[in-house]
Amino acid sequence: MRIATRILILIAATVLSLNAQEVNSKLNTTERYYKGDYRQARSFLHKSFETDLQREKFDAVYYRLRFKIDLVNREINGHAAEKFVSLQDDLQQLSLDFNSQLKVDSVGGAAVSYDRSEEFLILKLDRAYSKGQEINVEIYYSGNPQREGSIAFVFDRMPDESPFVWTLSEPYGARNWFPCKDTPADKADSADIFVTVPEGNIVGSNGTLKGVFTDDENRKTFHWQVRYPIATYLISIVAGPYAHFQDYYHYSDSDSMLLDYYVFPENLNTAQFYFDDMGDYLDALSFYFGPYPFLKEKYGMAQFGWGGGMEHQTLTSIGRVGAGWTFLYVHELGHQWFGDQVTCASWRDIWLNEGFASYSEALYAEWAGFNGIEPGAEAYHSYMNTQYFTDDGTILISDTTTFSSIFGRIVYDKGSWVLHMLRRVMGDESFFEALKSYLNDPRWTYGSVRTENFEEVCEKVSGLDLSAFFDQWLNYPFYPKYEYQWIVTQNSADNIIAEVTIKQTQTQTLYVMPLDLKFIFSDGSDSILTVLNDQFTRDYRIRLFKEPVAMILDPENWVLKEAVENQVERFVEGVEFNRIYPNPSHGEVWIELIHWQKEEIPLEIYDVSGRFIRRLEPVRKIYNLHSYFWNGRNELGQKVSGGIYFVRTVSDKFSVKVQKIVIVH
User: What is the pTM of this model?
Assistant: First the structure.
């Protein structure tokens, strides 16, 4: 229980009233579910379009992709009809990312010839194109797109040995199975995906299923249409003898959206049971972030052969079906807002995808409860503690050429904690308003974003300068390490001062953060106040209206940190009585003992002749305050007579402490 006690904070003998806004305005005065294949890193990534100036010469507008899949021989025939817009004058060629092991059969449209250069397909154009002009090219190709050590395009087998295909192109895998401008910074405005498979197989993909067509050989072609902008790594297919079922999400009294599911046949009944909660997942994240961003198309999940999950736009890929996967399903759904609606423009900023999706998990815990804890703040904080991350490394990625550096745990869990701390700094109202404003800003909604875009929105909504906050948490490794101590001085009954010292002992940057201090009082009540910690060592003098028995730094765990209390002498010597009340008593007595030992310390009561009366064990404990109750009776349950009694501690580690109790009848 939190008692709304009025507290004044005195710092350097000056009375300072610190409300939340003032604290925040001073801030700048001074293995979850991993994606990517770690085996896949190759030298060609160093030559990728992350550093290639060719990417700046044209804009991807539209992909029309056709695949005929031979599941037995593990080959595809592909036809890509693609539209680009020139971003400069005198553009005479296009350099597209493309897997060198696939054979180019021919090119067409504006492409009159081609050349291969390591991982690039260089198309010579029929003329020089001026800035703003459209360029339509066609590429016919064939072969096996599956590369050793890659999970971008996989010929696989279901548990019953049926062949099937699945894809996972993040971060650099789309080039393995279709020619494209393979960067998250440039989304195509739309796409059409046609996949032809043998009879008995079905295909799931992004967007809306526009039709299924059967040819003379009983092969079926599935036409999927995407009319929201989409990044290349979010384009995906699954194809094989899937079990397929559907449901609907009713997001208003009169409107609904298709829920579309593809699972291995043996998992159909299990999936129908566990996926029934999808409406609640959507309700929760829509409450926090705004409406699901692809309502005009669908949301679905498709089982694939990798053990984690992947947020393919409108059709998440999942490795397992069943209990224990709730928060993975929520994580990938959260990506539909953070990763798909707004996509990191560079893999350096991958935390904008993964940190936000991981934080979606904590918000769902707050919405629905977690680990037996009812919905609310306690469940939220309990879930955040499962993401506590205190390893080395910076959230902003410096090396984007290796999968392990892009998708290390730091961007998931520490990224989630950055948002958790930002919520505390900004306050709930501003924080959630900023999330929605960030998602719907016309400059980048359904486009690509960078960290500075998110920071800009947060500062605009909150009115705070957050540059130091983002700098200290994104650009430096580790976290603050606090050592603190406190002692109470009392000048009079109504003038109690808590003297608090907080030190930061880490060797990296100084962290400027608001810190909550929780004071515990002997009657079980408590008060929490907020101080600004902006120095490596800072002293605080805090006036209280009751004497505390304990103090906790950051009691609700709003700051990613280590915190150690250096206990002052008052609490180090051992054991002492705090108070006995009422005393004198008519029979029932409460006794309070103060100590920081883990083990319980019994009490024994004797009369004035030294005769043993009763042994007591603590009945409750609040931090270092241990409370005992004596009902005025002896070991046999008989009421003791009036007189003087002595209560003493029983411990072989500390000297015996004795106090007097007076019983009157």
Answer: 0.81
